[in-house]
Queue: 2 jobs
Job 1
Amino acid sequence: MNPFGGVVHQGGVVEGDPEDDPWKGAPPDLDPGGCRLYNSVLEMMPSKPPCRILPVAGRDVGMVALRRLQPGELIVEEAALVYVPDRLDREATGRLLEEVVGRMTRVQRDVFLALTDCRNPGHPDYLGRSHHTTISASSRFFTNAMSYGEDAGLWPILARANHSCRPNAEFVTRKDLGLQHLRAIYPIEEGEEVEINYMLMEQEGLEGREARQEYLRGCYDFECICRACTLKGGKLEAEEGLRRGLVAMKDRGLGRLTEQEVQVYLAGLYTIQAKLSYIFEVVEEVFLASTEAASRAEYGRHGRALVALMYGEGSPQVQLWEERARSEGCDAIIDWSEGRVVE
Ligand SMILES: [Zn+2]
């Protein structure tokens, strides 16, 4: 029996029958954006995620915090609904998806179908809600897929987090746990939308508004209305100037910056609410390159504070950075949000 409801002819050829639409199980319009469905899944999660999927202004739906969240708090941990190893090409991925969708439970399939499928409706490959199941499944997958180390996967709840050029949350891949984590990286108020940054921080993510908007329009087909993109007047000028300065420093090469410039660079990254994973990369780079004991100690503490926020206390990453910080003979803690050491 063909799980998608098409007709299987004797030769084994599968043909979709328009009268027997395999997508008819999709959530009806009385659950716009699939909010009710997603929230019922969130409520069933043992970790009791402090967020819900709700309609948000200017967008379809978004993830909203149920209470104030501190940097480092785990918001959602989710196992992949679909996992695609890096070695598979696009065609093999399509076949795998067909198989996986066929094995899904009713709820899993409903969740999958409620995902948006509109990365680029103008693209010639876009077939939307076609009864051609493989292409439609692939289209949904590629619209919502996330990287999982070298591989890719689909985490339907996490895929509800919208983009902001000034994010307050970030995905942390925990292959060791078989999970994808969404963690708060800056304070999030109750009722505030939980947002991640879709861009690479060292590339478009660091750029000014014009370049970011162009990138997001081209890749994701939306007009960004985030807090950074809607700044006006003096505040916009200040942010654009800061970003130009950061790009110039990055282009010179972090290895060529003086210690003071590194401090300015890091402080600037916190000001624009850069992803912690990028700030961590910078800290690790300058830590490994530094030969001066005092700065190594400071970078060591900074690195330890960042991995504690991203991976949690007790993680192997924290142990490694504890050793790094300790070997420099210093055990003061850093107030990461101020980018300074607390004595
Ligand atoms: Zn933006």
Job 2
Amino acid sequence: MKQSLFALLTLFCFAAGAWGETVRVRHDHDPWGKCEGELIIDQEGIEYRSAKKMDHNRKWIWQDIQSVDRKSPSRLSVLTYEDQKLRLGQDKVFDFELLSSHRTFSDQTLELISGKLKKPVTDRVTDPIDAEYQVPAKHKHTLGGCEGTLYFGPEYSVYDSEDASDSRKWKKDRDVANVWSSQRYELEIRTYEENRRNFDKMRVFRFQLKEPLNQAYYEKLRRGLP
Ligand SMILES: [Zn+2]
Ligand SMILES: [Zn+2]
């Protein structure tokens, strides 16, 4: 009952154009330690209010956020433009874990965040999609790889991996630049995902396919992309 009331209220807020949610989170420090507080996501941006560590309080307006990464249903990572002096100016990431087991960072929240950011986001939560085509695959890493299945639907493409951190859900018109196959047992998905090692390069996912790629679907996929 409580949850459905919350869902209704959330819907009402979204419909009214004014949305916002406040959740209790743990801020995980890098490389160790943590603090707890509130995360507020609303029209203006994202704010973190720590209960004890005042120097960890932040308020980012949308343009001060580079990207957001939904690492799991309960984990959200915010990539900022803040320099880390001890790490040769690497941009600072804030990792937040939800404290309530009833709550998740929902698809709707992620969609609103990406709309406000006006940029792609990284989504590692791969709930089932309406797949028109699927193919088992190995994602190639610099050394070795991980195994899983690729699913393609009208709006989303998904790589569901045995390694949850390598799973991805891409919204085609937002996250995918193009796809390429040099031969029928290979497929590349070139994405706009933040590439922190080479920020000026696209993040390319290379897959070795365990079955031959369906030629007709591949052509449809290429035509369907911008
Ligand atoms: Zn903290
Ligand atoms: Zn992988």
